Amino acid sequence: MTDTHDAPGSYWYELAADTGRVFTPGPDDMEDCYDGVLVASLGETGDAIAVTGDKRQALEALDQYYRRVCGQPNILDDAGADLRDAYYWLDAGHAVFTRRADGGWTATPTQSSTPGAVPVTWFQTPGPVPQPYAQRDAPTLPAGSA
Fold it and tell me: End-to-end CA distance of the chain, in Å?
């Protein structure tokens, strides 16, 4: 018996043929689109990606995604949080998207000059405020300073 999934012209056959190919993600590749910004989760950790290099646009789109799709009160999962605090967990840059054999994709950070690179903003699930943003009780001197 022949598996029709592996037949030329089938969806899975085409995906397997595209394995490793660099592509620009479209609406069918991502989970949703808010105000023209494509967004998708990045696994089980709560991290996500927005296809834009503009952190303001990414914040708005990801906030809508977390409220509508994930059922959270907002991107920080804290109804009382100031959304400006989410900027600490946004990292704008560029990535290349490559197709996996299972039909999914992998986004790899890269330089803007890399062929196929697209502007993106990553969101990492909030934790402690990252350095250098954390406030300190006393000023910190550079190493070797007196």
Answer: 78
